[in-house]
Each structure stands twice: as structure tokens, then as C-alpha cells.
Amino acid sequence: MRLQLGRFLRLQPSRVFIKVRDGEFHFIGAGAWYSYWRDPYHLMLTIPWVGFLSIFVLLYAIVNSLFALAYLAGGDCLENAATGSFLDAFFFSVQTLATIGYGSMYPKTPYANMVVMVEAMASLVGIALLTGLAFARFSQPSARVMFSRVAVVTMHDGCPTLIFRTANQRRNQILEAQMRVYLMRDEITQEGKFIRRIYDLELLRNHSPSFMLTWSIMHKVNKSSPLYNFTQESLVQTRSTIVVSLSGLDETVSQVLHARHNYSARDIICNSRFVDIIHHTKEGHRYIDYRHFHEVEQDAQTTFVA
């Protein structure tokens, strides 16, 4: 029991490195495909397509080579194959594994038929695994959602308001879109212990029945807000981060998709507002100009105090 526990502890990472850049925490190696080599299924889902195909080709060559050696171990057991020829045995294994069956080479001994039977079973399992992995990779929903590079604090309805905006780049509809925003910052408890605390930021509207074009997310900085009485300098000192999480149902593939974005303390600009991207034509129609999606302009003096 003690030996198994020691082996388990050796397999687990003993340290997780956290790098702080501009008030934002970055976990070294988190989310990287190569960090999942102990979890083959997760690795095959996260590795790039080039790596996925390379691993498939490598395993395909190894499996056929092993079966070729198994045929060679049986001596002259393949009809129309040169005795002791690795290439003939290898290509016969390829034909058997892919169930091609050209007929020029075929097993002529009970030993060879037994190896063919094992290889046929391995082929069924391999094709099932490959098909499942390929389907899982293709079926993974991906959200093409664009977030503004910065968030601003400006007056809205007489109250300082934190605002950032997002846009659906696919131009289709994300149904029942849900937006959640959190504030993460360093704090010291009454007992003098360090803690990384997470606060929910209440939004003016956190739900959209159909998110297709743009969406401005607003949080009022009033007395009930965790940002009340905070300045940009205090946000930097406490290493505050605004974490944004968007989820919804993609109407095209009918699957739930997720998108997230982080705003560090230096990404929050006070006394500014976003440039308007909704314009009117002479005919009275409206259009959206995404060229100014990330641009901001100076506004009246605004503080975090309501």
C-alpha cells in the first residue's frame, strides 16, 4: 500500500508555476497538449492535427512491422511471398489490416491463419478507436467570439459603469447566451492569511435570447459592487483580474459552446468610452462598422466611487 502511494505521488506534479504579468496570472504549461501525455485520450483530443496524423502514421507503421515479424517467425507461411522477405510480410500485413485482400499473397499454414485472425481483430479495434477519436475532434464546438481588447469605466445612467463589448464573428445566432463576469484579486483575511478571492459581478443584462452581432456588457460600480472605492492603482496592487465567461447554444450545430476572456488591471481604462460602431444611413437603415470595435475615446472624469 505504501509503495503504491509513493508511486502515485511521484507521478503527480509537485509544483505548479504561476507567472504574473501585468497583474494577470499565467499557469505555466496549463492547457498545453504536451502536458497530457499521461492521459492518452485527452492528449489525442488536444494535440494539433499534424501531431495527431503523425502519431497515427507512426502507430500504423509499428503495428504492421510487428505483424510482419510475426509472419516471418512462421517461416514460409505466405503464398507468393519471398521467404524471409520483410517487405513482402509488411505489405501483406497492410493488406490484412486494411481488409484489402488483393489475393496475390495469402496464408498457407495454420500458424499464418492464426496471425491473420489476431490482426483482423486488431484492425477492427484500431478502426473503431481512430473513427471515434477523429469524430470527437471534428465534433468539438468552437466559439468564434471576439472580445474588446480593453474594458472602460464611464458614466452610464448617472453611475460609473464598467463596460466591455463582444461580437459573434460567425454571424450566426448563439441562442440563450449567458454571460458571467468575475473579479479575482489578492486579499488578506482578518487572520492575516493570503487568499485569492473571487467575486461575482452583477450585470445589467447577463442573458441574451439571441446573440448574433454585438453585445455591450455593463456592470454598475455602486456601493454593492466589489469595485466600489477602487482605483486603477489599487487594482494593480491587488493583481485584480476580470474574468469573462460566455456560454450558449450554437444554432448551426446545436451544441453548447464556451468562450472566455481575461482583463488585467492594466486593461481597464478609466475616463474613456468605446467608439460607437452603430451608424445610420441616409435611408434610415443601420449598419455596424467593426473596424472601430476596439477603439476608445476620452470621456468625462469618472472614478470607481458611485
Which labels suit this protein?
disordered N terminus, 306 residues, Helix Hairpins, 5-stranded mixed β-sheet, Immunoglobulin-like, elongated, alpha+beta
Question: Could you characterize what this model shows?
Answer:
- By secondary structure, the protein is α+β, with helices and mostly antiparallel strands.
- The protein folds into 2 domains: 48-138, Helix Hairpins (Orthogonal Bundle); 145-298, G protein-activated inward rectifier potassium channel 1 (Immunoglobulin-like), CATH 2.60.40.
- 29% of the residues lie in helices and 33% in strands.
- A hairpin with a 4-residue loop joins strand 12 (241-250) and strand 13.
- Helix 3 (49-73) crosses helix 4 (86-97).
- 20% of the residues are buried.
- The model is unreliable at 1-12 (pLDDT under 50).
| Structural class computed from helices and strand pairing | alpha+beta
CATH topology label of the largest domain? Immunoglobulin-like
Strand segment tally: 18
> In oligomeric terms, what are we looking at?
single chain
- First-residue to last-residue Cα separation: 60 Å
Unreliable spans are 1-12
The helix fraction, in percent, is 25-40%
CATH superfamily annotation of the largest domain = G protein-activated inward rectifier potassium channel 1
CA-atom Rg in angstroms? 30 Å
Please give the domain count: 2
Shape: elongated
